[in-house]
Specification:
There is one protein chain. By secondary structure, the chain is of the alpha+beta class. The chain has one domain (2-111): Aspartate Aminotransferase, domain 1, CATH 3.90.1150. Helix content is 41%, strand content 24%. It is built from four helices and six strands; from the N terminus they run ααββββαββα. It has helices at residues 5-9, 14-30, 67-80, 100-113, and strands at residues 35-39, 42-47, 50-57, 61-65, 84-85, 90-93. It has a six-stranded antiparallel beta sheet with strand order 1-2-3-4-6-5. The radius of gyration is 14 Å and the shape is globular. The termini are far apart.
């Protein structure tokens, strides 16, 4: 979590900070092979140099970015979980639960789908 300490310290709302930390810690424990890093001023995780998932904090939600392919693949499940999404991110409202099983499926999908990817982003 050291890599995210400065990022987390800049989140003024303690509830938002705690929720963000909870999600990031969960990923670190669940996926010890993923590399946590800050890029573009946002926490993210990579695998063999390729992007797997990223996060950003806004006033109303924690944004989860599994890339467009992840959004497309899980669109129905995202809506079923009660989340809004755009082409590039899922919005987890601060006042709602985190669906960790959906988050796990999105991460597993990207790890599998990008196993042979040699670029940071999908082409």
């Amino acid at each position: 979590m050291d890599v995210f300490a400065e990022y987390l310290a800049r989140i003024d709302n303690l509830g938002h900070r705690d929720r963000t930390e909870e999600v990031l810690e969960w990923i670190i424990k669940k996926y010890p092979n993923l590399v946590p890093k800050i890029a573009w001023n946002q926490p993210m995780f990579t695998d063999h140099g390729t992007f797997i998932i990223g996060f950003s904090v806004s006033k109303h939600h924690l944004a989860v970015a599994p890339e467009k392919a992840g959004i497309n693949h899980f669109s129905d499940e995202i809506v079923k979980a009660g989340y809004e999404h755009t082409k590039e991110l899922v919005r987890i409202r601060w006042d709602g639960p985190v669906d960790f099983s959906l988050l796990e499926r999105m991460i597993d999908f990207n790890i599998t789908e990008k196993a042979d990817c040699s670029t940071f982003w999908r082409k």
